[in-house]
Amino acid sequence: MAAVTTSFSAMGIGTGGIDTASMLTQLQSAEQLRLTPYQNLQTSYKNKISSWGSISSLMTKLQTSVKTLSGQAFNTLTVSKNSAFTATATDKASADAHSVSISQLATAHKLRSAGYSSADEQLGAATGEGGSRTLTIQQGDGKAMTIELKDDETSLNQIAKAINKQDGSVTASVQRNGDGNYQLMLSSKKTGAEGEMTVSVEGDSDLASVLNTSHGGKGSGESGAEADGMSMVTAAQDAKLTVDGADYTRASNNITDIINGVTLSLNSVTKDDAPEQLTLTVDNSAIKTALQDFVKQYNALLTRTTADSKYVAADTSGLSSDDVATTSSDSGALMGDATLRSMVSEIRSTVNGWYGDASGDTAYGALADLGITIDAQSGQMTLSETKLDDAIAAGADDIGKMFKGSGETTGLATALGTVLTKYVGDTDTKSEGIIQTATDNLNTQLKNIGTQIDKTQTLIDSQVNRYKLQFQNLDSVMSKLSSMSSSITSLMSSV
């Protein structure tokens, strides 16, 4: 009997059954391994996208630096300080000296009415029928400002409010004069003779006598013309100045169209009719700052591309002859990428080029002439500030030609800018480069691999559910066998 019992025990019957939960977990883990190749690809795509994003950002910074060297760095000027005017210069201006004399500033026309004891007193004729009158303010050839005033809207305060409500080129206010009386003040927003105001009232002779002004507030007209109701506070006049012996008249004190790239802000009439000297000199410090930034941005880009393209051999220790070594995680995300390799090659080739005049007369033609040396292996630049200072002092114009180009000779900034635009695009022209195309392709692949992972996960879940059902059936069978085993054991024990 004992042998039979032992036999059933050897079959697993009556010993608590099979650990199907552990078996199911192991099978599920095995099924999940089907996702590993897809997940590895997904991680690879994400790392590549991230690397291209960082490289693109660094290239944009280098591109900005190169654009500065294509013009602005060599056109940054130091502007002299003057008393009668203030000058500002853009990169369109040229180093030069100019004689400037100011005989008259542009001023805005300003008028005032006579004084009244109350600012709320109605100054118009009362019709008793709720009538109205029309106030018109004309400036030069511009559109007239027309305002309708009712019988109870002819006080100084109400007139000022009505004018300001138009939000036109004239403002109004009510002020007290030295006698304590109230006056209406009209101020043109325009400077210059074109801003002179002509004021007229139709439909109310009383108010017309207060406001009508056709001679600029200078008093009565000639030949019996009606006298001005308002008097002039400030005349409407243009600015008058002489630049390099030529006379100019302008409506504004901010003048941009006399000296190319220079804005003159007039402050006062020149003293003793003595012209002031405006000098524009090249700011050599801007050239040095731009070249320092260029070296910095270039080295930052090369450091990143080197890290993203590096190769680290896989660790094969402990692998059998049948095992396959995987790529080292220390390798760059873009290791072996043809686009990156081509891009770095073009950039390095460009900065190592010669950009002197074909005639050979140019003092500088290569970065080494400016104290910028390039390591042949790493591509990193090293800047000698002493040599750069000497080069700038000796020939800032020649350095400009080297970067901007001269005649038919292409400059370094132009050549390098073309390469950078090819790969990173240009926000100014809203063009996209090769990097954007590569990133778009990677994003498409990333999306596709995500879809594949979802489909595979669905198949894995279905397979695991089938395993669960099979194990449930197995548990049911084992439970029945266990019950039968108990019954047989009991029966044989009673024999």
TrEMBL record:
Q: How does it assemble?
A: Homopentamer.
Q: What does this protein do?
A: Required for the morphogenesis and for the elongation of the flagellar filament by facilitating polymerization of the flagellin monomers at the tip of growing filament. Forms a capping structure, which prevents flagellin subunits (transported through the central channel of the flagellum) from leaking out without polymerization at the distal end. Required for morphogenesis and for the elongation of the flagellar filament by facilitating polymerization of the flagellin monomers at the tip of growing filament. Forms a capping structure, which prevents flagellin subunits (transported through the central channel of the flagellum) from leaking out without polymerization at the distal end.
Location of the protein in the cell: Secreted; Bacterial flagellum
The answer on whether this UniProt entry bears the keyword Hydrolase reads no
Record protein name field: Flagellar hook-associated protein 2
Which keywords does this Swiss-Prot/TrEMBL entry list? Answer: Bacterial flagellum, Cell projection, Cilium, Coiled coil, Flagellum, Secreted
Q: Which GO terms describe its cellular component?
A: bacterial-type flagellum filament cap; bacterial-type flagellum hook; extracellular region
| Transmembrane parts of this sequence | none
Its lineage opens with: Bacteria, Pseudomonadati, Pseudomonadota, Gammaproteobacteria, Enterobacterales
InterPro entries found in the cross-reference section: FliD, FliD_C, FliD_N
Domain Flagellar hook-associated protein 2 N-terminal: from-to ranges: 17-109
Please list which residues make up the signal peptide. none
Organism from which the protein derives: Pantoea latae
Q: Which family does it belong to?
A: Belongs to the FliD family.
Output the Pfam families linked to this UniProt entry.
FliD_C (PF07195), FliD_N (PF02465)
Q: Which GO terms describe its biological process?
A: bacterial-type flagellum-dependent cell motility; cell adhesion
Chain ranges of the Flagellar hook-associated protein 2 C-terminal domain: 236-482
